[in-house]
Amino acid sequence: MLTSLISSLPVGSLTVTILLIVGYFFTFKKCNVNPFWSLIPGIRDYKLAKVAGRTSDAIKYMIFEIIAFICTTIIQFNIELFNSNIDEYAEIFLLLFGMAMLGGVGSFVYTLRIFSGLCDIFHVKKKWLIFIIFGGRFLPLMIWGLGKKYVPTLIEEEKEVDGAALSGIKVDSTGDGLAINIEERVATDNFKKKTLLRDIHLNIDPGHMVLLLGGSGAGKTTFVNAINGYEKADANIILNGTSIYDEYGSMKYKIGFVPQADLMRGNDTVISTLKDAAKLRLPTSMSTDDRNARIQEALDFFGLEPVKSNLVSKLSGGQRKRLSIAMEYISNPDLFILDEPDSGLDGVMARELMEGLRKIADQGKIVIVITHSPDRVIDLFDDVIVLAKDSKLTGRLTFFGPISAAKDFFEREQMEKIVLRINRKEEGGEGLADSFIEKYAEVYNG
Q1: How many Cβ atoms from other residues are within 10 Å of residue 236's Cβ?
Q2: Distance from C-alpha of 359 to C-alpha of 365, rounded to nearest angstrom
Q3: 250-274 burial string, b = 16+ CB within 10 Å, else e?
Q4: How many CB atoms lie under 10 A from the CB of residue 148?
Q5: Which single residue of 101, 276, 309, 421 has CA 20 to 30 Å from 193?
Q6: 30-42 in b/e burial notation, b at 16+ Cβ within 10 A?
Q7: CA of 228: how far to CAs of 2, 203, 223, 254, in Å?
């Protein structure tokens, strides 16, 4: 191979390294990337893949490279041990050798994918990949970087936009109820910071049933995960005077979360399912009589007494939903969060389920519900939280308040029509999220 021939020279490995750096340097310079990244292994591969539009391939390439490097290094440092005790360490040697080979093959495959993308960028035929196959990665980089006739078509970076202005809102967290002050929720994707939520501040009073509304990707699930402490944000979340984040060990029992997909075992009975939930969610110090009383209360409240001996797999859709909620209800939480509890239910069953949630709120609890069919049960809700993606694709608060006020604010009578107002134009909406985010801040700050 070409690299092997050069490496056979006294200074072969150094020569290859220098040629590779030169190739990266001039390719980066031509592609408007800081050429000094060519000096840093790993990062230069990521930058090159980004130029080629193959950023995700760079991550996989680096993972395989690390696997190959670690396994090869271990073998090299222990080669004498393996040679002298081959019978004893044969399995370990073969495992390391196999992992090293896997890493090498994987990094080679993703190198080809990255350079295939570069072929497209530089408008050359894929036959250039022959140089990669035979180990001459530096050669195409030098030719493309130094050759005047090779002009890349650069992939445009996503333009930076300002997004809606910050609201300046901060809510009081000293009273009863749920006080939410989320500064931001950030995640990292391919070494790039992405802000999922920002500037969300609101107070929910005890006894209120609240609709969480927003289009796809608006951040509803991220929002509820930030509230319940499952995915902590840069935030201050206070429930009835106690920080959910600071006192998570005890506060998690004050929160009932019902996901869209239930996690119940189909071959368990209703009563055994509730008994298992009681063991998990009630204090071990609680007496058997008190524990059984809580189970019975859940059975009665959700109308499950007649089917308590039935298998979960034999329940209707509505009964399964009620059982999912009953499992959380057992611990008597102050906050209920439900992700599409009416999914898959017809209008009558959905209404019946939502009326049950209304009864829970009337006990002084806070109930937050995500539903994609809000208008059929909208009269049961007190307030609505409306989230939307601003022009930076960050989840923002566009409104919080009573249902009637939301209709006036957005000048729409139906919740589905409100979502259309704030959805992006490419999603079939009116693209007015930024203006409503700023309008809400103006109204709130008065």
Answers
A1: 18
A2: 9
A3: ebbebbbbbeeebebeeeebbbebb
A4: 6
A5: 421
A6: bbebebebbeeee
A7: 58, 15, 9, 10
Q: What is the pTM of this model?
A: 0.68
Q: How far is CA 369 from CA 203, 263, 333, 351, 366, in A?
A: 16, 19, 15, 13, 10
| Residue from 226, 184, 211, 210 nearest 394 by CA | 184
Split at pLDDT 50, 70, 90, the class of 414 is very high
pLDDT (tens digit per residue) in 247-300: 998 898 899 998 877 778 888 999 999 999 898 888 888 888 999 999 999 999
What phi and psi values does residue 90 have, to the nearest 5 degrees? -60, -45
CB atoms within 10 A of CB 97: 14
Tokens found for residue 304: 């499950």
Q: Using CA atoms, how far apart are residues 84 and 260, in angstroms rounded to an integer?
A: 58
- State yes or no: pLDDT of 102 exceeds 50: yes
Q: Per the structure block, which two tokens stand in for 287?
A: 């007496």
Place of tokens 């190739």: 23
Amino acid at 49: A
